[in-house]
Design brief:
Largest sheet: none
Strand content: under 5%
Number of strands: 0
Structural class: mainly alpha
Helix content: 40-55%
Number of domains: 1
Radius of gyration: 13 Å
Length: about 60
């Protein structure tokens, strides 16, 4: 588990398996917030911290 959240591991993933979620961060897509907690959308704290933009931060 610890290896998965190391920067080097994530960097290898970005280089080899770049995803649509990675592209959303690069495009600075907006992150939706729903007034109800749902497992497929981020919580208010995450949306607020990233000022409404997509982020793939880890760790």
């Amino acid at each position: 588990m610890e290896d998965a959240v190391q920067y080097e591991s994530q960097n290898r993933r970005w280089e080899n398996w770049y995803s649509e979620a990675d592209a959303a961060q690069d495009r600075r897509d907006k992150t939706p917030f729903s007034s109800t907690d749902t497992p497929d959308l981020p919580p208010l704290a995450w949306v607020t911290y990233w000022r409404g933009e997509a982020s793939n931060m880890f760790g």
